[in-house]
Amino acid sequence: MSDPRRTGDQRLTRADVLAPVFWAIFRATTLEQLGWRYPHGPAAVTVDGSSPVRILVLGDGPAAGCGVRTHDQGVAGFLAREVAEATRRGVHVRVLAEPTASARSTVDRVRGADLSGYDAIVLMLAATDALCLTARRSWQRHMTALVEALSAQTGCLVVTSVGSLDLTPALSPLARRVAGRHARLLNTVTSLVCARSAVPMVSLDAASELTAGTYARWASRIGAVVTRSLSLTTQHP
Asked: What is the rounded distance in angstroms from the CA atom of residue 164 to the CA atom of residue 184?
């Protein structure tokens, strides 16, 4: 796994100094947790029904289902059920996410990929980049590239914020303050990127733990925007 940070900024900041330390801790912790903190089994959830809506969930740890045993208990499962109930159609949600995915690695991952078969794409990033203190310019550049590339492949792209990291009990008080502040910075940049491309951004509320309950709340917000966007796409193909 490559370090998602950018090292070419002109001015050395506190984030630049702390970033290598945060990245090393994040990488070691994530590797240790892979066997027990992430879902096993198929990275997809299906709700049977006619004319199924095809949704791709793309991103990092929360998109990958951190904290739950199956994707049915993660954002993919709750999103599938939310959209199915709202549209009265079948839904198939595929998860293409990695616990340590960054904006930069995700750009590389989707480059050249054919994602045009999806009716909607949900992009859930920034947890890794916030925890690793990715430079603002690097985040803006790669998020802009992602939003442009994904918008070209689907009529319904939805981008989420990163949930607050200030409450994360696994982090030390200092790490919570620094990562939480950086998460808010990245969210601000993301909102500007989305606004320029007229792409909806869903703000995720704070959570001290990633549980099925957390994912249910988040999926409710995401599902409402996805359903509305799908309706507009259907009316104006």
From this structure: 8
Q: What are the pLDDT digits (tens) for 180-206?
A: 889 999 999 999 999 999 999 999 988
> Of how many residues is the chain composed?
237
Query: How far is residue 89 from each of residues 28, 74, 81, 84, 85, measured CA to CA in Å?
Result: 42, 20, 10, 5, 7
Q: Give the start-to-end residue ranges of the domains of the chain.
A: 14-235
Any idea what DSSP says for residue 51? S
Q: Name the nearest CA neighbour of 18 among 172, 196, 150, 163.
A: 172
Q: Does the pLDDT at position 233 exceed 80?
A: no
- Residues 89-116, mean pLDDT to the nearest whole number: 94
Q: What's the pLDDT at 201?
A: 97
Q: How far apart are CA 51 and CA 49, in angstroms?
A: 7
Is it the case that residue 172 has pLDDT exceeding 80? no
Rounded Cα distance, 236 and 64, in Å:
32
Residue type, 98: E
Instruction: Provide the pLDDT for residue 24.
Output: 58
The answer to whether domain 14-235 has CATH 3.30.450.20 is no
φ, ψ for residue 125, nearest 5 deg: -130, 180
Q: How confident is the model at residue 175 (pLDDT cuts 50, 70, 90)?
A: confident
Task: Please tell me the pTM assigned to this model.
Answer: 0.85
| Nearest Cα residue to 104 out of 130, 136, 138, 127 | 138
Alpha-carbon distance 39 to 32, whole Å?
A: 14
Q: What is the β-pairing status of strands 91-97 and 44-47?
A: antiparallel
Q: Which of 129, 151, 156, 152 is nearest to 59 (CA)?
A: 129
